[in-house]
């Protein structure tokens, strides 16, 4: 890999995605993306220094990135919170890889896929989502869909990144049998969510996968709960 590929890989390992990293170092996302596309050697010196500082590297080390630093080496240097973020990102990449990469890393050309039409029943979010109870709100085209599913929803917001991105279509099997640690589509007091859930006594705990924090170290998307006082309905299990 070239310098830019290695740089992007390190950014995604440490920060989940380029956009989050750009915000962290106070550079426009378009600037960082341009540097990764056009080359570090063509970037302004002050921007290279900002990127290096954001990665706790010296600028000269950034300019000479090679393959000597493996993913496992970087992973082992991360704290537990960031390791969880890396795991979720890697899991998503692995699922995507299955559609285009054979064994031994050999890339297999994808056959042309005809878009599939999918009925969307609502939006699942960290708040403000809506479930329309069998009423289709829109129809969209997707590249692929599971052979069997009951409903499809659009993810709204970034609380479930990096596994589920804003605007992504997710597919759901309608069932009340959702177990601890599974990703579910749920409705609480007329708002629809996509969350990892845990049953704790008489209440349900909803967990977001995005572990980003604010400047005070507090999670942007903390766990929250629903109990017998709430109007709780489990729509179904998200197909992974």
Automatic annotation (TrEMBL):
Keyword Transcription among record annotations: yes
Regions crossing the membrane: none
Keywords: DNA-binding, Transcription, Transcription regulation
InterPro entries: Cro/C1-type_HTH, Lambda_DNA-bd_dom_sf, LexA-like, LexA/Signal_pep-like_sf, Peptidase_S24_S26A/B/C
Gene Ontology MF term list: DNA binding
Keyword DNA-binding: yes
All residue ranges annotated as the HTH cro/C1-type domain in the record: 21-62
Pfam families membership: Peptidase_S24 (PF00717)
Superkingdom per UniProt: Bacteria
The name this protein goes by in its record: HTH cro/C1-type domain-containing protein
